[in-house]
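Hi L., both proteins are below.
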Amino acid sequence: MEHLFETRNLRVAFDTLDGEALAVKGANIHVAPGETVAIVGESGSGKARP
């Protein structure tokens, strides 16, 4: 199957005053043609990057 988007082993971490905070560890994501995807979360939760 062909994917429009695919990522493997996604890792997201943030530096804090107490050290690194791991938000995502090892996520695999793919979006196939015809699928609908939504990204949800609180305001200011990091859904978009400047």
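That was the first. Here is the second:
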Amino acid sequence: MMKKSGYTAEETQVIQNTAKELAGSGIRFYTGHCTGQKAFDLMKPLMGDSLVQMHCGMELVL
């Protein structure tokens, strides 16, 4: 989802629709660098605690 330039209205809608679908799954999602900060910022308000941004050195215990 990461782009160097801004998103079109259609791309923004796709990202938000994706976030809504994922949020309804009951699964927690961890994003990496390929999601990009802009997409993460669009998705986080819709997904809340079900979306977590991973960072270098972060340890995930399953």
